[in-house]
Amino acid sequence: MRKLGIHIALLLGGFVAFISHEWGVAVHSAVGLGIGVVIGAHVVAHRKWIRSVARRRRAHPDARLGGFNALFASVFAVCMVTGFPLWFGASGGAVAQIHNLTAIAFLLMIPGHALLNGRRIRSWFRAGRPRPAPAPG
Q1: How far apart are CA 64 and CA 67, in angstroms?
Q2: How many CB atoms are located within 10 Å of the residue 94 CB?
Q3: What is the DSSP letter of 109?
Q4: What confidence score (pLDDT) does residue 57 get?
Q5: What's the rounded Cα separation, in Å, for the pair 79 and 126?
Q6: Between these two residues, 2 and 9, which has the higher pLDDT value?
Q7: How many Cα atoms within 13 Å fall on the side-chain side of residue 34?
């Protein structure tokens, strides 16, 4: 259930970070840093899977998801790195454009990440349901 909580926080956090842009730089930056912490927890929680995909590459059953996640992580990293100069007072220019484009790309990639993880997500919800008792006999 803890992993499901992290995933829900990530999903909501991505959208809150996007809309918090209108609430000012301090709030937007705090939300972005908070999402960074939750993503860090997510990566730590899935570190065995990440190592397995990195080792086996295309031979891994989840190679497509692994490739997508590498791109997803790269987009997030560029978004975070370009956000720091903006947080410290830089405004406009190429850095702001790159930050905005990667933020939008990150948001658009969230459903793709969820779809590629569909089997796991369904199993989490199934695991939470009470199972009927076996029939006597």
Answers
A1: 5
A2: 8
A3: H
A4: 84
A5: 35
A6: 9
A7: 17
| Distance, CA of 71 to CA of 92 (rounded, Å) | 25
Q: What are phi and psi of 113, to 5 degrees?
A: -65, -45
| Distances from the Cα of 101 to the Cα of 7, 41, 52, 76, 122, angstroms | 23, 25, 31, 11, 31
Token pair 């791109």: residue: 71
For 79-91, how does the pLDDT look when each residue is reduced to its tens digit (9 = 90+)? 999 988 888 877 7
Is residue 3 within 8 Å of 48, Cβ to Cβ?
A: no
Residues 106 and 73: their CA atoms lie apart, in Å, by 9
Integer distance in angstroms from the first to the last C-alpha of the chain?
34
Instruction: Inform me whether the pLDDT recorded for 130 exceeds 60.
Output: no
**Taking 80 as the threshold, does the pLDDT of residue 26 lie above it?**
yes
Q: Please write the tens of the pLDDT for every residue from 64-120.
A: 888 999 999 999 999 999 988 888 877 778 999 999 999 999 989 988 888 888 777
Nearest to 96 by CA among 109, 79, 108, 71: 79
